[in-house]
Amino acid sequence: MAHGVSDEYKKEHFDSKIKLEKKLDQLAEWIRSAKHFIVFTGAGVSTSTGIPDFRSGMDTVLSTGPGAWELRDNRAKTPKNAKVLNDMHKAIPSVTHMALVELQRRNIIKCVISQNCDGLHLRSGLNPDCLAELHGNMNLEICSKCGANYLRDYDAATGGLDHLTGRKCDKPECRGLLKDSTINFGENLPRSEKSKAFRHANQADVCLALGSSLSVTPAADVPERVAERNQKLIIGNLQRTCLHKMSSLNIYAFTDTIMEGVMKRLNITIPPWILRRCVRFQIKHEKLNNCYQILIEGRDSDKDLPFSMFKSIIVKTPKSEYLLKKEPFSISIDMNVQDTKNEAKIQLQLNFFEHYNEIPYLLEYPLEDINEEFYLFWNPTTGVWVRKERADENLTQ
């Protein structure tokens, strides 16, 4: 019980088929009639992606095996038959993640409040305006000086007490030290995320808590606030939680099972997950020096934040080839030493981090002033990039 969870709360329960069907009917009815529906998520929404949770017991039925803290408390190792990813960035958002994305897109969910720092909610496509990440995000860095945010397609969390990542703010007028955004035990929750979460908790008439023991405060105070206001709190979890007596309904089932059942009753299809990438490209001709300034940036498609999504970029001109290995991905090409005849072109090869086996994306442009932004969508099941000019374009077209 080193982490405050007794054996009583480690035992896993499963509703019978008949009981589960009735509970899902009730949950779907409450969601339909809700005026302000929110969802609170814990590690249990990510276990089906291959990411272990923290508190599942040594005899858990989860394919990921016992929770990280349970292993530590028992001085045990992850079982050999456990299906655990060695790199969380390879995790494909679960059925639960994608169901939440679709419900948020339809404005049925007003806010998702999460204890998870695995980055899967953002990666799944949730609009950050409708997401409060109480314990931070392993992919997010924040400038300690100006507060600018930077998303990374790699683990930015340091695990250190000072949170310093060794990188600096890109803004020339700032250059402040960057810190990771993950929250260690004993640290205060980020003020903006906490404020957002409780603002929605104070408006919610239905709150669905998924995959959380609801034992870590102050995060667990969010669903508790809903119950204290005599509004409906529904808890979906395999174990009994600390708030089970306060809830309107306790559902004992996998979170994916719960969300599949709810979406079926709401007659809403759960969309497949597709990786989204936003690319900003610029060529600027500086006539005074007769050179071309080339800049390639990754951006977050929802909040227009800098997003480190390229491992490297190859730039080819008529006579030279350049390998850009780190940000900012920019280069100045002196046209005095280039062959400018026959409409010289520039070729680019965008190399990604390949978490989902993304192949390089090739581009070709004439050497002229260009300033554009476009979107790339990668379907890991087909292995094909699709380019669109808008993030919301139909990918089947």
Describe the structure.
With about 400 residues, this protein is α/β, with parallel strands linked by helices. It folds into two domains: about 5-140 and about 180-265, 3-Layer(aba) Sandwich (Rossmann fold); about 275-390, YEATS domain (Immunoglobulin-like, Sandwich). The protein has seven helices and 20 strands. The chain has helices spanning about 15-35, 70-75, 95-105, 120-125, 190-200, 220-230, 255-265, and strands at about 35-40, 110-115, 130-135, 140-145, 150, 165-170, 175-180, 205-210, 230-235, 250, 275-285, 290-300, 305-310, 310-315, 320-325, 330-335, 345-350, 360-365, 370-380, 385-390. Helix 6 (about 220-230) links the parallel strand 8 (about 205-210) and strand 9 (about 230-235). Helix 1 crosses helix 7. The longest helix has 17 residues, at about 15-35. The chain starts with 16 loop residues before the first helix and ends in a 9-residue tail after the last strand.
